[in-house]
Fold:
Amino acid sequence: MIIKEDYGRITKTWKHKPKFEALTSLTGPGPVLFIATDDEIYRFVNEGTPPHDIPTTGSTLLVFKSGYKSKSVPGMIGSRRGGGFGKTVFTTKRDKQGKPIKHPGTKPRNFEKVIKKNRTPWFKRQMEAAMKEANKKAGHAL
Structure:
């Protein structure tokens, strides 16, 4: 349910579709729900990236559109239409001193924090209802 609803909204407009897996743990002080992915692109968007050199492997040219609209916004669950727009720009991957061109980095979207904040009350209610039903079936209804 959370994967389809929350993570589905996050990646709705993405061409790249990360795979998510739900894991439930019943150890510790109470039940815990983990949603996991090993998808690197999702991690870069969720956690953000620091400024970094654009890799110089492959082509010596860097090709991109003159404008860009992000498909997601920090602190919000969902995605919108976005991506590159405008004229196509061609530039070298190194500046006049021969140093790699820097990418400014991306702001973290913090999807995980927002989902945890939004879903914790829902998850508690689900667990309380499940425990109540289990007690009822076991003949220990309150």
Summary: The chain has one domain: 2-137. Residues 2-137 form one domain. The chain has a mean pLDDT of 88.
